[in-house]
């Protein structure tokens, strides 16, 4: 394929994805002598949990809630083909410069896409200006909706509607496209697809990533943001038009970004508002160590499964294409054994919530446990100690849960198991699900919710 012709462009100002957090804990870098910390807090490689909590409370009491613009994420490496494959096989994010797909970069503007997509209606996210595209909408979850419109309508309204932002999310090929019943793209775009798929399949075979599966073409006018979340499959993201900035957080820092519970509509999203974090509630977020990269047209990002990522579009028209590789079906033990150890905190919280939730639901159904005793309470007491009124039988079940976790996690110490249990409950993250209907884009839903001027809902 032809090489991409890069043109001189004005530098893009950095996208403010994160406010600067407080200074890191003493165990992550040497303390500043001006802090005058008690020596007892600095003893050991890892501080006891109680000392960490005292240190954070001291910091917040002193008003140290943000550090003055001194926090910088590490850059994601950008490599040539062979080095890209080597980094990818290690399960680390990496960018391939000037990959295949150069012809898409040269021609995939709104005019070309309209000529190839004007005959069908397409799924579009619609949110109030300034609201994030979180792909799940409903009262108590977030304003927005998923609707359908023709490409000419989308192109016109996304420019003229000053009150809302628009983001088109449509399948590009394969199984997702087959669900539409017909191929809605023009002949030129079908040729584009054949060439890109041929190149991507060769790349995934070389990288041993597995078979290409789900995919999406993303089209927007820029300046919007998708909040921090993770995907359960390996992801290849090709930037075609405009720029996107990815903030990436490794899965071993899952508890520091406080995921929503698994039965919440925003499961797989972070509870933390990265632009204005509540350090009183989410104090571990102060220690997050992130990576960041801005993709130029023609760049390909490998994003490993379970890595947290927040995505900000640069200004101006924005088009990108991403493919997820098929997830291998495996039993629970195999998933833990075959997944990178740095993913285990994320897998652990999902297992704990699912396993204890199932136990408590069955006990409620059998009327063997008061309805006021929740799975969240069971998990909390597993991590911090049993309450006096917790039945002995439930304590034995708790020991079974802990034993199963130890079996799945391998050679962890009792202290490390305690940390996993406490992390699962930290920040009051086991919140109740909102009692409302939601629209979930990934499930093919249409509809949504907006608040009117009086705060009531409009679907």
Automatic annotation (TrEMBL):
SMART domains: JmjC
All residue ranges annotated as the JmjC domain in the record: 172-340
Top-level taxonomic group: Eukaryota
InterPro entries from the UniProt entry: Cupin_8, JmjC_dom, RmlC-like_jellyroll
Transmembrane segments: none
A Pfam cross-reference name: Cupin_8
Full protein name: Hypoxia-inducible factor 1-alpha inhibitor (Factor inhibiting HIF-1) (FIH-1) (Hypoxia-inducible factor asparagine hydroxylase)
Taxonomic placement: Eukaryota, Sar, Alveolata, Dinophyceae, Suessiales
